[in-house]
């Protein structure tokens, strides 16, 4: 009995690596600390009522944000582990298999479990406020989306201490991701973690398309919407067409691994290039899914801190929608070297260059907006200004990669690594950090400390260039991707050491941001006006943080930058108090525990599929079905906030008379 338990434990838990043991200890201690705090302060009921069962889009956005910052930490640690291994030749800090697992989890986490939830957090926190809505179109589905993401991310992340991490690369090309190349359960964690969270992502895209089309304030026509809302709309369009491709692709890989389908194995009559095409038909639009909202954020920030209406509004809208279409016609540039033929390569090279035109046009629009504007260098504007040169370099190197003959030289080299980090960090991460700094006082009621924020800003930016500029040169020198060690004779050591120093500088910058948040919770400047930046859109017309129902009276927004125009008519006076006579009971959705329980059953089912424990998978799927059935019989799903409560809430914010 003991021998069998010992054998099971040795195969179930990851052993043999001091780093993994350290992770085990930290997980156990953190779990104990959380449970102790909840018991000591008797917060279990509060946690369930206020957070685990909430359908409030603002609280869901906050949970997305917290989860994404945790994933940024996890993915960042993976990056530092890789850079430590590559800092000098012939290091044995990580073994080859561990290095493969680290770069696989780093890429997957940063794209799917950091960038996507940070994006969805901003969607939730901002879009309903910008369009004058009291909630999203489907609040219950919104909660389902978050908890599916959360449990999918949890399933993926436990793989590095249970079962073993996936190690076939962040896109898991066959045959390495087939049973022949990855016989362990790591690849199963990859499939089911992404599948479960991907369902939530697809639901979010649907939810926000309907929200934007159907729930705008009276008078707000499509061509009067804020630019961030337009960027969310264009990103959501890509989501609903791209994510089903990912779902089907991973389902086919699941059939190969579990049922011997041989869809992607050559010796069984399949074709691994079919997988590569399918995964990139999702993978390259995915890049635009995460970067388009960042473009919307920059548009809002540039207009606000230049005190000018965005230059070329219609061209910006056209650029966003053009990118959402063209993004589906560029995927083959990821494998120009596979031998598709000149005609195919030429088409996708031209399409890739063409998508740079609307992308570049937006940069000029931002510059023209700043031209002769009264620019204020607040924290959100600093990140925006840092983005522009960074993204220009990333775009230029992207055009270099779009040239098919040249790509034969750059392909799979560190030049490519530098390029996509230049775009994804300089565009996506800088954009979302700018958005977090910009909307933080609106959601939380206080500003983030400026001094600590500037330390973080300069460490991030200096570290970024120190880290990734040498990698362009390393690519030209012949250093390829996925190399985990190298010899002194290659001549790569000095530049790799410099790159590693830059990575650790960015890590220190993140530490300063965590310190900044913790410090500002107690000492941050409180926002008593609801409009700390002198903003232009509707979210700045209500108190900070917003009440549960957002708007006591649904606003009328017949103009672009409607709140700015209203303030100009009032000579920039704050929003006036709401007359109590105009207030009435407000219809709101009730909280529900079903989304949490539903997603937890998906986790159970996914865990069962990972280990091929059919009893657990069946139990989990039965739970999924039972929660769906329970929801279908749930009729008491909404309520009215009494007008007396609305009046009291508005009075507490100094708004009702």
Notes on the structure:
By secondary structure, the protein is mainly alpha-helical. It contains 20 helices and two strands. Strands 1-2 form a two-stranded antiparallel sheet. α9 (272-306) packs parallel to α11 (342-370), α12 (379-402) packs antiparallel against α14 (414-444) and α15 packs antiparallel against α16. The longest helix has 35 residues, at 96-130. The radius of gyration is 25 Å and the shape is globular. The N and C termini lie far apart (74 Å).
Features:
mainly alpha, two-stranded antiparallel ribbon, 67% helix
At a glance:
By secondary structure, the protein is mainly alpha-helical.
Sequence-ordered SSE layout with sheet pairings:
Layout lengths: L1 H11 L5 H23 L3 H9 L4 H30 L9 H35 L8 H19 L28 H29 L12 H33 L12 H35 L6 H14 L15 H29 L8 H24 L1 H7 L3 H31 L5 H27 L16 H31 L38 H8 L16 E4 L4 H17 L3 H19 L5 E4 L1 H10 L5
Antiparallel strand pairs: 1-2
Mean pLDDT level: 94
Number of DSSP strands? Answer: 2
Helix coverage percent: 55-70%
Give unreliable regions as ranges.
none
What is the radius of gyration computed over CA atoms, rounded to a whole number of angstroms?
Answer: 25 Å
* Proportion of beta-strand residues: under 5%
Number of helical elements = 20
Helix-strand string? HHHHHHHHHHHHHHHHHEHHEH
**Spatial order of the strands in the main sheet?**
1-2
Oligomer: single chain
**Major sheet details:** 2 strands, antiparallel
Computed structural class: mainly alpha
What is the approximate shape?
Answer: globular
Distance between the termini: 74 Å
């Amino acid at each position: 009995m003991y021998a069998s338990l010992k054998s099971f434990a040795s195969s179930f838990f990851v052993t043999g690596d001091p780093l993994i043991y350290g992770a085990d200890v930290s997980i156990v201690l953190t779990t104990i600390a959380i449970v102790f705090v909840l018991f000591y302060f008797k917060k279990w009921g509060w946690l369930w009522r206020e957070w685990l069962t909430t359908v409030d889009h603002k609280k869901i956005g906050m949970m997305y944000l917290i989860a994404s910052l945790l994933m940024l930490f996890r993915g960042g640690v993976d990056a530092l582990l890789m850079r430590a291994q590559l800092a000098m030749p012939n290091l044995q800090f990580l073994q080859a298999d561990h290095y493969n697992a680290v770069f696989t989890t780093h890429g997957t986490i940063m794209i799917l479990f950091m960038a996507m939830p940070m994006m969805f957090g901003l969607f939730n926190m901002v879009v309903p406020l910008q369009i004058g809505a009291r909630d999203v179109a489907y609040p219950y589905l919104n909660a389902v989306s978050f908890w599916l993401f959360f449990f999918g991310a949890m399933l993926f992340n436990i793989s590095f201490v249970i079962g073993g991490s996936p190690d076939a690369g962040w896109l898991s090309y066959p045959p390495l991701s087939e049973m022949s190349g990855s016989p362990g359960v790591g690849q199963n964690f990859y499939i089911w973690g992404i599948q479960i969270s991907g369902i939530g992502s697809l639901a979010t895209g649907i939810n926000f398309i309907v929200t934007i089309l159907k729930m705008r304030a009276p008078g707000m026509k499509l061509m009067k919407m804020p630019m961030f809302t337009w960027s969310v709309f264009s990103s959501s369009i890509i989501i609903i067409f791209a994510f089903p491709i990912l779902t089907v692709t991973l389902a086919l890989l699941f059939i190969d691994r579990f049922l011997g389908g041989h869809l992607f194995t050559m010796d069984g009559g399949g074709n691994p290039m079919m997988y590569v095409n399918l995964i990139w038909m999702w993978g390259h639009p995915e890049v635009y899914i995460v970067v388009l909202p960042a473009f919307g954020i920059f548009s809002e920030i540039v207009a606000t801190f230049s005190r000018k209406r965005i230059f070329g509004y219609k061209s910006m809208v056209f650029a966003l929608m053009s990118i959402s279409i063209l993004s589906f016609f560029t995927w083959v540039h990821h494998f120009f070297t596979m031998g598709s033929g000149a005609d195919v390569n030429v088409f996708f090279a031209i399409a890739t260059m063409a998508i740079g035109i609307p992308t570049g046009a937006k940069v000029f629009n931002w510059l023209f907006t700043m031209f002769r504007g009264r620019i204020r260098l607040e924290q959100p504007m600093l990140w925006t200004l840092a983005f522009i040169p960074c993204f220009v370099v990333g775009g230029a190197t992207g055009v270099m990669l779009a040239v098919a003959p040249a790509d034969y030289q750059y392909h799979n080299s560190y030049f490519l690594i530098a390029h996509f980090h230049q775009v994804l960090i300089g565009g996506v991460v800088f954009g979302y950090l700018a958005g977090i700094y910009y909307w933080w006082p609106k959601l939380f009621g206080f500003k983030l400390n400026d001094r600590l924020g500037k330390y973080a800003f300069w460490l991030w930016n200096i570290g970024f260039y120190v880290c990734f500029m040498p990698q362009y040169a390393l690519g030209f020198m012949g250093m390829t991707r996925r190399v985990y060690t190298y010899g002194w004779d290659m001549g790569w050591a000095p530049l790799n050491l410099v790159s590693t120093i830059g990575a650790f500088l960015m890590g220190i910058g993140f530490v300063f941001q965590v310190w900044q948040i913790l410090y500002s919770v107690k000492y941050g400047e409180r926002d008593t006006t609801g409009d700390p930046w002198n903003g232009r859109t509707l979210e700045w017309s209500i108190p900070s943080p917003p009440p549960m129902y957002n708007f006591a009276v649904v606003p009328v927004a017949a103009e672009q930058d409607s709140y700015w125009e209203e303030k100009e008519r009032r000579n920039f006076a704050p929003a006036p108090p709401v007359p109590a006579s105009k207030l009435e009971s407000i219809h709101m959705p009730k909280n529900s525990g079903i989304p949490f329980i539903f997603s937890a059953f998906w986790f159970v089912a996914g865990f069962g599929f990972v280990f091929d424990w059919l009893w657990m998978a069946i139990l989990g799927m039965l739970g999924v079905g039972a929660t769906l059935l329970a929801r279908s019989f749930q009729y008491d799903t909404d309520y009215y906030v009494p007008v007396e409560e609305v009046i009291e809430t508005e009075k507490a914010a100094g708004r009702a008379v």
